[in-house]
Design goal:
Low-confidence stretches of chain A: none
Largest interface: A-B, 31 and 44 residues
CATH class of the largest domain in chain B: Alpha Beta
CATH architecture of the largest domain in chain B: 3-Layer(aba) Sandwich
Radius of gyration of chain B: 22 Å
Transmembrane segments (chain A): 34-56, 100-125, 145-171, 217-242, 262-285
Order of helices and strands of chain B: EEEHEEHEHHHHEHEHEEHHHEEH
Protein name (chain A): ABC transporter permease
Structural class of chain A: mainly alpha
Membrane topology (chain A): Multi-pass membrane protein
Subcellular location (chain A): Cell membrane
Low-confidence stretches of chain B: 1-6, 349-356
Radius of gyration of chain A: 23 Å
Helix content of chain B: 25-40%
Domain ABC transmembrane type-1 (chain A): 96-285
Mean pLDDT of chain A: 86
Largest sheet of chain A: 2 strands, antiparallel
Distance between the termini of chain B: 46 Å
CATH superfamily of the largest domain in chain B: P-loop containing nucleotide triphosphate hydrolases
Shape of chain A: elongated
Strand order of the largest sheet of chain A: 1-2
Helix content of chain A: 55-70%
Mean pLDDT of chain B: 85
Strand content of chain B: 15-25%
Order of helices and strands of chain A: EEHHHHHHHHHHH
Oligomer: heterodimer
Shape of chain B: globular
CATH topology of the largest domain in chain B: Rossmann fold
């Protein structure tokens, strides 16, 4: 493609400069309608979660025996009420905070730790690679759900423990991707050329490896956010994550399950929120991947 | 950058007669992964480079030729120290690599390499100027100074800095990218440049331009080249001396003219016969080399070429030839030219060869 250019004067003479890789990816992403819709939904969800305390129509903790399990569209309860008569709309808005946090935070931590481990293993190669990756494989051998439940169960209920166990679940997955991408880059001629120039391994990783591996790892991590949200909801559902009365979509799904026969639509709403959010993150990840994969 | 080298290079230690790089008994075997349980049997290895020795003289272009898989590229990587050797020594201008006088870092500053694949040897996320400036900044040159040097070098290799410095590799053609690679190799002001099939992937017309550029740069900067190629015509055009490799060993070294006029080693002769010619008077009578080279995991006994050699005798299967001087300036590893080797030399007289 012909990249648009601009001129600058970083050196002595003015130089025609091409748009960088990041700018090109962003441009292609902006042209992808599906990814843009997903990004808009995510943005709205995030804004909703952040400003929930000011946007909520009612107190999400106020219970009322008289208003239990009202259907959607009831006067004063636009999305109905839960089994304790609390306003479901307010709880969904506030619940988005914890749900989004539990979706994003473990992935960010695993991205840093797992990415670091994978890049180290991939660049080192040889026996160090084998040692690190076999340890990672031990964790990878467990199904994610089982591992998350087992770890949370062992650590005890609570947000922090759920966060830790989810991070541990995602570290091996991200590390594997990071290792394979880094191994590929390490074998390239430009890394050899950098070695031939006498640069240290650390400098080569910083200047030549990172920029070429971070994209694919980031895309993969983005696609894990939805998995993390669902797992976190699952943990809350099992009573291993967020504790009542705090609102969180997974936990709300759990407590409302008793109402599935009386108010199925109300009971399904937290699940719908989880679904919309995770699908949006997946579509954004797909868009990001195709924006990065274009052969230039 | 220094424009010309009329004065002696201050880095020159041993004077013009001392080889720039002496390679001594360099060896690299790649062990094979054991199959199955692999507890029994000897450990097998691909003998990619099997004890080669040669000198690279100051200011020369040493061509390296041989079939695919003969160890040319491994040799290049060993010379650049991208692959560690199993044994053997590199002596750069009288200093042994790894000795207190010459660290790997110092050595790499004076020896650079241009790879075959112009695209994969440039970081796709770096602009051309940053790729060229990277090396000097590693060695303590300021970013500003390194960039200005990069612009000078771009101009020197025929790419206008204002147009090309801020470009990414995928925006350039193969020939332009290879010019960038050459500029990057020059950025550290090396004395030795290893050109590993550097022009092989280019179109013929572009190849000729790049070859001429390499010749110019060699003159201008007083460089020494190791020119590795499978294209014998190009090697003849570029090289002062030529080294012929077969199955991880050096079989012949001679000046380019002598080698192409009168090859001594039967393998060299066969290799030259495989060169296509358009001249009907130079039609080949003898069959060129046929078949593939033997397996480097288990090379033939005695002389490694005896399985394909038209002049092979019984002794060749038993006795490995010693690489040595057959006549002044010409070294060869063949029992034919080794006095007292047991090769029945009745039909071959050295004198005849010399005056041919």
């Amino acid at each position: 493609m012909t990249a648009a250019t601009f001129t600058d004067t970083r050196g002595r003479t003015p130089v025609v400069r091409s748009r960088g890789h990041g700018a090109n990816v962003l441009r292609r992403l902006l042209r992808n309608p599906v990814a843009m819709i997903a990004a808009t939904i995510i943005l709205l969800l995030v804004l909703m979660a952040i400003f929930a305390p000011w946007l909520m129509p009612a107190d999400p903790y106020a219970t009322s025996m008289l208003k239990r399990l009202k259907p959607i569209g009831t006067e004063g309860l636009p999305l109905g009420s839960d089994e304790l008569g609390r306003d479901l709309l307010s709880r969904l808005m506030l619940g988005g905070r914890l749900s989004l946090f539990m979706g994003i935070a473990p992935v960010v931590m695993a991205f840093i730790i797992g990415g670091g481990i994978g890049i180290l293993a991939g660049y080192a190669g040889g026996w160090l690679n084998t040692a690190i990756m076999r340890c990672i494989d031990v964790l990878y051998a467990f199904p994610s759900v089982l591992l998350a439940i087992a770890l949370s169960g062992a650590l005890g209920a609570g947000i922090t423990n759920a966060l830790v166990s989810l991070t541990v679940v995602f570290i091996p997955q991200i590390a594997r991707i990071a290792e394979s991408v880094t191994t590929q880059v390490r074998r390239s001629d430009y890394v050899d050329a950098a070695r031939a120039s006498g640069a240290s391994s650390l400098l080569i990783i910083r200047k030549h490896v990172l920029g070429n591996v971070i994209g694919p790892i980031f895309v993969y991590a983005t696609s894990l956010i939805s998995v993390s949200m669902i797992l976190a909801s699952g943990l809350s559902f099992l009573g291993l994550g967020v504790k009542p009365p705090q609102p969180e979509w997974g936990l709300m799904l759990n407590t409302l399950r008793t109402a599935i026969y009386t108010q199925p639509w109300v009971a399904a709403l937290p699940g719908l929120m989880i679904f919309i959010t995770s699908v949006s993150f997946n579509m954004l990840a797909d868009g990001l991947r195709s924006a990065m994969e274009v052969k230039q | 950058m220094k424009p010309t080298h009329s004065a002696r290079d201050p880095r020159d230690l041993g004077g013009p007669r001392q080889p720039l790089l002496s390679v001594r008994e360099l060896k690299k075997h790649f062990p094979l992964k054991k199959t199955g349980l692999g507890l029994r049997g000897p450990r097998l290895a691909v003998r990619a480079v099997d004890g080669i020795s040669f000198d690279i003289l100051k200011g020369e272009t040493l061509g390296v030729v041989g079939e695919s898989g003969c160890g040319k590229s491994t040799t290049a990587r060993l010379l650049m120290q991208l692959t560690p050797q199993d044994s053997g020594e590199l002596v750069f201008d009288g200093l042994s690599l790894g000795s207190p006088g010459l660290s790997l870092r110092d050595y790499r500053r004076q020896t650079q390499m241009v790879f075959q694949d112009s695209y994969s040897s440039l970081n796709p996320r770096m602009t051309v100027e940053d790729s060229i400036a990277f090396g000097p900044t590693v060695h303590g040159v300021s970013q500003r100074e390194a960039l200005s040097r990069a612009h000078d070098l771009l101009a020197r290799v025929g790419l206008e800095p204002a147009r090309f410095a801020g470009r990414y590799p995928h925006e350039l053609s193969g020939g332009q990218r290879q010019r960038v690679n050459i500029a990057r190799a020059l950025a550290l002001e090396p004395r030795l440049i290893i050109l590993d099939e550097s022009v092989s992937a280019l179109d013929k017309s572009v190849e000729a331009q790049v070859l001429n550029l390499l010749q110019d740069l060699k003159q201008a900067f007083g460089l020494t080249y190791v020119f590795i190629s499978h294209d014998l015509n190009v090697v003849r055009y570029m090289s002062d001396r030529v080294l012929v490799m077969y199955l991880g060993e050096v079989v012949e070294v001679a000046s380019a003219d002598a080698l192409f006029e009168q090859p001594l080693h039967p393998y060299t002769a066969a290799l030259l016969r495989s060169m296509p010619t358009t001249d009907p008077l130079r039609r080949t009578e003898q069959a060129p080399l046929s078949g593939d080279p033997p397996n480097p995991i288990d090379p033939p006994s005695g002389c490694r070429f005896h399985t394909r050699c038209p002049d092979a005798q019984a002794i060749c299967r038993m006795r490995a030839p010693v690489f040595g001087e057959a006549m002044p300036g010409r070294s060869v590893a063949c029992l034919k030219y080794q006095p007292g080797s047991g090769y029945a030399a009745s039909t071959i007289a050295l004198k005849e060869v010399t005056h041919a």
